[in-house]
Amino acid sequence: MPYASLPVTYDPRARHVTFFSPALGISRSFSIYIPRDVDERRPAPALYLLRGHEREWINPFEDRSRDGRNVIDVYEEQRTAGRVGPLALVFPGTSSDDNRIPGMLVNMRAPHLANGATGIGSGRFADFFFHDLIPYVDRHFPVIPEGRARGIVGFSLGGAMALSVAARRPDLFACAGAYDGTFLYACDRGRRVRRRDRVIANPMFDAAYGVPRDLTFIAQHNAANLILRGDAAALARVVWVVAYGPESHEPWQSNYYRGEHLLECLRARGLANALENPVIPDGDHTWRTADRFIALTLPLYDRALRHESSKAPDRVERPR
User: Fold this and answer.
1) For the purposes of burial, counting CB atoms within 10 Å of the CB of 76, is it exposed (0-12), middle (13-18) or buried (19 or more)?
2) DSSP three-state, residue 35
3) Are 152 and 130 a contacting pair, CB within 8 Å?
4) Cα–Cα distance for residue pair 320/179, rounded to 1 Å
5) I want to staple 58 with a disulfide (CB 3.0 to 4.6 A). Which of 11, 23, 50, 305 is the partner?
6) Residues 82, 302 contacting (CB under 8 angstroms)
């Protein structure tokens, strides 16, 4: 296969791939896991998993809560139990190389404000994702190159990005999930975002959103705004899967209120959450709970990606 493979650092079951991105003007990396029974004769649907750095979902020690496990272990356990079929798992890099500057999968307003962080290039992360990364994976790996066989899911900022890109391009994804997504609040029927949101003010977004903040640009890329103002029929073709920690864990270990707001936006457009109850009662903002969320929701993604129903799958039971 025509890709450059670097030494595996975090999990030997995943390949670490570096390729040149014309959009960014630099080389970027991602990791990909291909089950052993998937090949060019038997391609699989692809599930993209987002956070920031490409290592995070597959690093078993990304935080202390994980205790030596990662999302590949979660997938293989679900596969062994017969709950899911073959899936390719793709782990894109969506931040600077040191993971300090989030790309947010937007074409950055002020990439020069990344203060010399490497891995930013032109800052055109939306073009990188849509025009470079997805086509590269489709061409060089045994995945089914169709929007109805592609899903996306994320944790924290990764959850915000996952729902944002699915709402921007619902033709490219059959399902979109988020655990404890850092969603921004939509105002004025989706035309604006809340100006005083403490997340927007964080200096790590200077490169992505500009200084002073370009609030119109932010609203154009925020999941809640996109859902409120997007094409209802197109959005309805996506299976939406949203969960978050309990209200008692706000503000540092749960994005409960942001998740509730996102669900209000879905309901306003007649869109359902595929989870019966989005609150994981003992959930927190850790990789342990993010992995539990994937274990809970993988069957939903699998069903959507295999076109087993022309409608959203039956809702999953309340998380425990």
Assistant:
1) middle
2) coil
3) no
4) 15
5) 11
6) no
Mean pLDDT of the chain: 94
For 42, other C-beta atoms within 10 Å of its C-beta total: 10
Pair 136, 201: CB distance under 8 Å: no
Cβ burial of 221 (10 Å; 0-12, 13-18, 19+) is: buried
| Cβ partners under 8 Å of residue 125, min gap 6 | 23, 24, 94, 103, 104, 105, 106, 107, 108
- For range 89-114, the mean pLDDT: 97
Which of 169, 171, 160 shows the shortest CA–CA distance to 193? 160
Q: From its phi and psi, is residue 180 left (phi > 0), alpha (psi between -120 and 50) or beta?
A: left
For the record, the structure tokens of 231 come out as 């094409």
- One-letter amino acid of 94: T
Half-sphere exposure of 185 (CA within 13 A, CB side): 14
Cis preceding linkage at 102, omega within 30 = no
Q: What is the mean pLDDT of residues 10-20?
A: 95
Burial class (CB in 10 A: 0-12, 13-18, 19+), 311: exposed
Q: Is the pTM of this model over 0.85?
A: yes
Share of the chain above pLDDT 70, in %: 93
Hey, which residues does 3 pair with through a beta bridge? none
- The model's pLDDT over 21-72, given as tens digits with 9 standing for 90+, comes to 999 999 999 999 999 999 999 999 999 999 999 999 999 999 999 989 999 9
DSSP state of 235: H
Structure confidence at residue 317 as a pLDDT band (50, 70, 90): low
